[in-house]
Amino acid sequence: MRRKRFQKGSLQARKHGRHWVWVAFWWEDHSRRCRVLGRSSQMTKAEAEAVLSAMLRSINSGVTQTAKAVYTFEQFTRDVYLPFCRRSWKESTAGTSEQIINSHLVSELGKSLLHGVRREELQDLLDRKALDLSSSVVSHLRWFLNGIFKLALSDGLVLNNPAAALRIPRKCQPGRTMRPLTEEEVTKYIGVFDLREKLISRLAIFEGLRPGEILALRWKALANDAIRVEARVYKRVLNTPKNGKTREGAISDGTLALLKEWADLAQDPSPDGFVFPSEKLTTPLSLDNLWRRYMCPKVEAVGLEWATFQVLRKTNASLSKKAGVDPKVASDQRGHGLGVSLEVYTSSDMDQKRAAVRKLEAAVLRKPQPESQSASASLA
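Structure (tokenized):
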């Protein structure tokens, strides 16, 4: 029996009435088939080839291929890259990453054949995006492009990775400024809340917990002056912590006192009960409702509505550094790497900078004592 062979089909431009169209030809069930794909004025040859390749994919399935399928950037991203990444992405990562990829990459490169994309085209794309986006977002775009073409290279769909050597443009739009709270602002911030919100804000500022980790806490996770972070909630879905690792953290004395006071008021103090439950008690409190209804109006009254949970996390990192806490210990408490702790969350205030330059000045300009004076001083 004659072996079924992999086929790529053929594509011809033919005149159909008054218009030129793309006509695809292929073999199926021992018969030659053809189909009009679209007008040449409305579809490039690359787009027509991608459509033909998609049509033949089901016919060629199960056949030992002698040639690789042809993908457009959109097809490969949608059918291969994103499904592959979703296996390891958390819900929060998938939501933001897919939105960035679809909005800024697929919209620009979607119809381009994957193997036809060149480095210059990608660099021009980043240069255009830098006119409207911050360096952080452009850096993410470069990272995604590199990941997409790296996966395509591993599948043998491209000859090289055109995104490997891309550069971040020098002139990007300034990103959103975000500073930590000062010591005085922390006192003002916590002071405006009732017991529940005061406890939640302290867990973010002093214990360094993420908001999803705070709301996912159960009473069994609290023991003496330690807290075990083994879950988080994101959009009402319970999952493992962001880095996938369970960790133990310490609890400050002030937070511990508030926890004991809050435990006396708990409607469900059982080990599996949530520390901050919703009205149903069987689910954790909603972060959106917590911030919109109970926290933002209170801090808005004192001009601190800009201090979101992300600011509170930055405050924990920055004030820990200012207080002389070991950077490794602080990053372990917050549950992320040391590099992220120092480069992303930690910032120095003006008092620390003044102390640094004065310390350097004193060290550099310190003059050694003359030998004669030192000898006479020792004899005396």
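Residues 135-154 form the longest helix (20 residues). The chain is about 50% helix and 10% strand.
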